[in-house]
Amino acid sequence: MPNESNHPIEAKLIDLAALRQKSVLFAALSDGEAWELIGLSRQENASARQDIYQVGQIGDSLHIVLEGRVKVSLLSEEGKEAILSILGAGEVFGEMSLFDGDPRSATVTTMEPCRFLVLRRQTFLPFLEKRPQVMLELIAEMSRRLRATNTLVGNLSFLNLSARLARILLNLVQQYGKMSPKGIVIGLKLSQEELGHLVGVSRESVNRQLRLWVESGLIEYTQGTLIVLNSDALFREALAS
Ligand code: CMP
Questions:
Q1: What is the DSSP string of 134-159?
Q2: Which of 86, 89, 118, 131 has its CA 20 to 30 A from that of 177?
Q3: pTM reported for the whole predicted model
Q4: What's the pLDDT tens digit per position in 59-86?
Q5: How far, in Å, CA of 216 to CA of 147, rounded?
């Protein structure tokens, strides 16, 4: 179980300026409102690979990521996984059940140790009702996610494996890429199995494609760390269908 805490000393550890930069929700609030919202929430810590929600569970709370990353996924009856999204600091999850009262629409699992702010429906909804600008930011964020999911479904339906994988890698470059003398290092360790879950194919298929790209000098891939050596060539792969 995640470790819960309401301790005021821990609440002080929140870096509001950093949170504002990463969170559309906090960016829409004044300092006073932001601290009020933090005061209405509790903090929760979780170690890596912990399920925060499981699909189908009843839930009336929303999480804001303070530190770490989570994956949002669906699991088939045979235990196959499809990753819908990876969320990091400042991002929100759990808003769907909080708004519509239906069970959790996906499983959310920590990929690394995480720290969250947790808000309950009965405290968050009255706060939102008084601040329509924050409501609009949340609606905009839900629209962006729907667009991203549309893109994912389109890619799964219309593109071959190499184009899908190239697009995922370019997305990861955009979100987590750091320049290095060698190339662009993707600052998020992903196993070949997880890459497969993002692209909708088996680990073996991902392995075959990555080996081809390693051999042709597009990427380097060692122990889960991916370096893009030739981003132009990866763009060309992403455009070929
Ligand atoms: P909820 O349904 O309460 O619990 C699971 C959460 O995962 C959901 O709220 C959203 O916050 C998040 N989620 C579900 N589907 C997606 C998606 N397609 N893209 C990004 N996040 C999602």
A1: HHHHHHHHHHHHHHHHHHHHHHHHH-
A2: 118
A3: 0.89
A4: 999 999 999 999 999 999 888 999 999 9
A5: 33
Q: Is 218 helix (H, G, I), strand (E, B) or coil?
A: coil
Q: How confident is the model at residue 241 (pLDDT cuts 50, 70, 90)?
A: low
Ligand 1: list residues with CB < 6 Å. Answer: 53, 59, 72, 84-85, 93-97, 104-106, 108, 145, 149
- Tens digits of residue pLDDT in 168-190: 999 999 999 999 999 999 999 88
Task: Write out pLDDT tens, residues 186-216.
Answer: 999 889 999 999 999 999 999 999 999 999 9
Residue 203 Cα to ligand 1 midpoint, Å, equals 24
DSSP state of 236: H
Around 67, how many Cα atoms within 13 Å sit in the side-chain half-sphere?
A: 14
Domains recognised in the chain with CATH numbers: 3-156 (2.60.120.10), 159-239 (1.10.10.10)
Region 78-101: mean pLDDT is 95
Rounded to whole angstroms, what are the CA distances from 34 to 19, 133, 152?
A: 10, 13, 33
The distance from CA 130 to its chain's CA centroid, rounded to whole angstroms, is 28
Vertex 84, ends 82 and 90: CA angle to 5°? Answer: 140
The separation between CA 125 and the C-alpha centre of its own chain, rounded to angstroms, equals: 23
CA atoms lying within 13 Å on the CB side of residue 112? 13
Q: Contact, 212 vs 223, CB < 8 A?
A: no
Q: Locate 19 and state its tokens.
A: 């949170």
Distance of CA 162 to the CA centre of its chain: 23
Which residue's alpha carbon is at the smallest distance from atom 17 of ligand 1? Answer: 84
